[in-house]
Amino acid sequence: MSEPRHILVSGGAGYIGSHMVLALLEAGERPIVVDDLSTGFRSAVPAGVPLFEGSSGDAALIGGLIARYQIEAIIHFAASIVVPDSVLHPLAYYANNTVNARALIACAVEHGVPHIVFSSTAAVYGEPDRVPIDEQQPTAPINPYGRSKLMVEWILEDTAKAHPISYAALRYFNVAGADPQGRAGQSARNATHLIKIAVQAALGKRAGMDVFGTDYPTPDGSCIRDYVHVADLAQAHLDALRYLRGGKPSLACNIGYQQGFSVLEVIDTVKRVSGVDFEVRLRERRAGDPASLVASNQRAISRLGWTPRYNDLETIVRHALDWERRLPSAID
Ligand code: UDP
Predict the structure, then answer these.
(1) Contacts of 303 (CB under 8 A, 6+ apart)
(2) Where in the numbering of this chain does the NAD-dependent epimerase/dehydratase domain appear (predicted)?
(3) pTM for the full predicted model
């Protein structure tokens, strides 16, 4: 007996992927998850959603799943995501992010999967000429993470010209926050992302925190980023899926709020929302950080029909704090 059509979510046990699975279920879709559980958690996948432990670059595994579940679209999250780590371990990033994605895309072509939604990044722009950054600006990544993702965009672009497949490459700005209903959030054994680190400092899970660089060409000298709520990001993928199903052309599209906050402003917000004044140490710059990344989101709004619901830094921080309070101590 064959299964009804499903959506394959690679990295569905991870931070963004687990929110995507919830959004798909709520939208009446049927997700299946492939995750190697290197950074994801089995417990992040809701009961009833099939989870296959393995690599998205494993052609035998993916090919078998595409046939068995009649996969209609792949949403590809599985990747390594830490910019300074990519500077230290470029070959690992190219293997996991680029080589595995190429294998996954080849499987999609071979088995006739019509749509791919790809998790790309603002890091493809490098040091932008101006902010907000629109999709017409040149791509010129300044770290291996951004380069490993941009190569996948190129593979998708060329593949979609040669084969009957369409894609959306969503260029995420800084993803943060947690499911507003408290069902999912960011669990990481070694957190590196700013809002996660700051809420951990507020909750006493770490002894204060560092600010990496206060001599950038920004008003307060710390880096500026555009923080987007993970639930709005998941919604953007649903919008992209609807767009591709409608037969529309492949595209690359920023996902952000078109609003930047400095590292120091984010820390102030976490202190205010939590009511805790933790220690903040001003440090040297971290390798690979552009000074300012703020999205133009006109394309997401006009072409995907994306409507952000949680465009508010305090809300993002509140949801991140709520999740961090619930996390079992074994997972930080
Ligand atoms: N950052 C910081 N202290 C930390 C973690 C991050 O000052 O403990 C800064 C980092 O240098 C960057 C910004 O916060 O300027 C966002 O970094 P994050 O790692 O969250 O995301 P990225 O922009 O690198 O994807």
Answers:
(1) 243, 248, 251, 253
(2) 7-256
(3) 0.96
